[in-house]
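Exercise 7. Predict the joint structure of the components listed below.
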Amino acid sequence: MFRFLHSSDLHIGKRFGNLPEDLRGRLREARHGVLGRLADQARANGTSTILLAGDTFDTETPTPAMLRQALAEMGHHAPLRWIVLPGNHDSLLADQLWEAARGVVPDNVTLALRAEPLTVATGVVVLPAPCTTRRPGRDLTEWMSSAATADGTIRLGLAHGAIQDFSEDAAASDVIAPDRAARAGLDYLALGDWHGQVTVNDRTRYSGTPEPDRFKHDKPGQALLVSIAGSGSLPEITPVDTAAFAWRTMPLHLLGDEDSAMALDALLPAAPLRRQTLLRIAASGRTRLGGRTALVASAETASHDFAHFELDETDLATDCESDDLDLIDRAGALREAAQALLTESDDPARSAVERDIARAALVRLFSYAEAVEP
Amino acid sequence: MKLTALRLHNVKRFAGRGVAIEGISDGVNVLSAANEYGKSTCFEALHALFFQPHTGTPKAVQLLRPYSGGNPMVEADIATDDGRYRLTKQYYGGKRASVTDLASGRLVAQADEAEAFITGLIRGGTGGPAGLLWVRQGITGIDKRSNAEEDSEKRVRESLLSSVQGEVEALTGGRRMAEIAAACEEELYRLVTATLRPKAGGRYAAALEERDKWFALEQRLATEVTTLRDALDKRRIALTRLAELENPDEDAARRAAIAAADKALEAAKSHSEALKAAEAEAALAANRRDTAARILSEFRAALQRAEDLRHQSSLAQSRRDEANANRAGAIAANEQAIASVQVAEQDEHEARDLLARLDAALLARDAAERLTDLRQRLDQADAARKQVEDSEAALALLSLPQQTVDQLQALEIELVGLRAAQAASLPTLRLDYVDGAAGSITIGAEAIPDATDVSFATSLRLDIAGIGTLALRSNRPPQSDQALDRAENKKSSMLAVLGVDSLAGAHQRLAAAREKNTELNLARQRLTDLAPKGLPHLHEEIARLAALSAGNLELKADPEQVRTRLAAATQQVAATRNSARETQPLRSQADAAVVTAETAHAALQAELAALDAILGPENDRPSREISLTAEHVTQKSLHDTAEARAIPLRAAAHDLAGAEATLNRTRSVQNAAEQQVGQLRVTLADLNGHIQARSDNAVEEAWREATESLAAATARVERFETEIAVLDRLLKALATARSAARDLYLKPVITELLPLIGLLFDDISIVFDENTLLPQSVRRNGQDEDVDRLSGGMREQLSVLTRLAFARLLARDGRPTPVILDDALVYSDDDRIERMFDALHRQSRDQQILVFSCRQRAFAKLGGNVLQMQDWTPPA
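Solution:
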């Protein structure tokens, strides 16, 4: 019976330049902090081994401070054992990184820099496939099939990269054979690269990142707790939470007269979670002029609760009828202006951009008209 | 549309009861009552009926409700082209709206349909302004305005234009429009300038700056990352290369290669030494053999040559002797010819001398003869010359100038004339003596002749014997004789000059001179004949001839014979010279031949002498040849021996250059390896520095951050651009609508307004600009006034007039509309009000006007249909 924690894609050092400045520091710190949370989960679940399947660092040249602090953090958690595999972001090409790491690596951290069996416990061997370059252009796990180990040994594959067309980087010429575990007689193949958790087969998993860094996957940051009874037995796999921040994308589909503000409120997570949540509301469907301004106002209010809040209105259409226009004015020049904008926003002779702008101008006119007393 | 009745129940002060105003007619209707009577309540109720949906409870509706609560109900009867209707609305509890056809009593519409019906009435169907025209007490628009707004400077400065335009815009919903436009503009111009350029310091400009900043940073960092990656790649390559170079096996292999090459070179070198020695020996032997062979062959050649020379020498000697003999002959012949030339020349000379002497003698003889003649002529010539000289001297004495003589002659003639004239003028006396008395009277001593006229010039003293002295005086003027005196004087001076005593003398001298001159001429002619070239020439000729004739005058030979002899001698000279010239070349040739022969001989002799020196004494020569031959044979065999030793060495030659090159190459390989290691270490140190610096700065992370930030900043800029486009579009839409409304109403309204203004203000005229619709000027009492400030009274009057004008416009458009005035004229004085009444009546011909007023007395003059409020209970 061997139990370990499988994680990957920590991307320590990622800076989040696309997010507001005050949030960046928190997000960076969370990436460093995930080491501690992984260690906590390992201890809590009675395991002493953590496999990091690549992209522990975000770049090939992290600052010395960051590198040392990360390694020191791992060192603090001795006797927990960390096996660190180079991924595509921190491939072996990053000799600066690995050279520096070698100099300060604590005893309980093993840098899996060579494709050769590593005995991590009695009868347990890890077969690492470190990324040689950013894009190796070949299946680095190939060697595992021919790697000999003693009978009854638990064989664990550790690799980083795409299977089929799963890849964080679009280029996918260097795919890992999806059936590598079967071909190489692995009891478990721990994969990294894909930031969302993916089950490839019974013995092959992407752990996903323990601390999400984008909205793309809409999954919580987790690691995998893997227990293997013995050589050949199916691994027992349990996800454990590790993330400090949640990145959520929530669809908000509106229907005509629906109260958009209420619909939004119903969607938002519980207040205590909001500070650690980066939320994107993907609004879709249709709304009336008033509903739209109410939605925007409501979102504006709610946004302050969250670490980050985005309202994506791209797919939200605005319906506009004559009584909506009446709210602007029943007659006169204002009504004329509103009517002109409405006509333009539905005019198929105009470009989509012009129509959108006319529609947005109408919405704006509506919100101004609301603010000005009749 | 026209109103015919208004009823309300449970509205404001009418809690729990109702009032009705019935019988509203066309034209002016007046409801005149004291304050707090409920006029304004009627006004507000009516307004609510038309503008407040029955479902809502906005503030305007809340105000209708009495304090005690309840459900306000309003009802109005109207007449339109389509028929007469009753509009009813109830708010709050039992809220409803209905339209009933009064003719049939049929319910036409309810609830929303009723609202739509009412909206249709006031909108007039074309999106025009609110159909009812309302004017309230003290304000110029129906819209509520805050105090702050009323008091603001903007309002204080309200111009005539804004008064008029404001009215129109109030009617066209313009105030909200202005506020919306202002809000929109404020938002837009916070971001951009009026030309839609980013506004400095604005958020848009900041976003642009931010984006540009990130762009620049991203570019810079991308370059740095590329540089860093490049450096990493380079370092990797360098490290790989270094590892290869420092591999101990390869190092050992390189050193072994050097040792092997060294050994090979040593072997090659020692063999090369041996070969060199053998070659040198062989070369020396060959040299010696060649020398011996050369000496022998030279000796033999010299012997042969000596033999030849001796033969040639004897031939040359005989040729020399022959040439000498020839030259002696030539010399003799030549000298003989020269001697004969000398003899011939001597003969010729002698003959020539003799002939000369003969010629000289002949010449002397001739000269002597001529000398005698010449001497005779000279004597004659001398005589002639003497005669000439004598004659010339005589002539000089005799000669007188002919002109002077002529003048003298003329003077003489003049003198005669003058004398005669004098004589004629002189006093004369004549004494005729008596006998005996002759001579008794004397003049001086001289007696006066008898009977003879005696004349005198000046005075005359007569001594009369015995009697005394008689003095006679002529008393003539003294100048009367001056001309004569002058002539006399001139004559005597001329005579003195000429040297004669009288004219006759002069003539004689002239004659003598002419004679002498003739004589002289003859003598000169003779002299010329005798000595035509002058006497000196004659003397010279004589001297020359005397010299000639002084020689030997004897003739010893015949000159002709001598001449013949000379010619022969001359011929002989020429002949001999020619023959001498002929012999000269022969002699020269002989000389040259001698020289040639001598030279040839001498050369042969010299060569022979040299050869003899080489060959040595004649007797030793054979033995010497033998010894030289033997030496040659010896040297040849020695060379063969040396060559035989060298041949095997040559065959086994080692490639020394090759061995050396190999050694150099292997050494250079080693050196290059060492050098490269050194260089690689330096390169690595550099690269390490670069990489360290960049990775310490975390350029890759910074670059990723910059890339993401750039994307975010770009998105932000795009959002701003969209925002700006939206705001701009909205502003344009508003501006277009507003200007369309202005075009639609403002200008026509002003057109309608102008006659009304004329009606109201006969002392005032307002001129509007046709294009801008701005009032250009206000003239009052013939004086221009500031259009910016108008009195409150005037403003409210204009406000009412504007509405009237507007209503008129609508009426013309086929939409007659009531105008409702609620205490609208509070600031106007009575006079002005009456004028307003006139205006109202004038308008009311086309339309309905409702006037609510508390100024009962003043409005009594308005006339029109007086309305009354009466209690009313709505039907159950």
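Discussion. Chain B touches chain A through 58 residues (CB under 8 Å).
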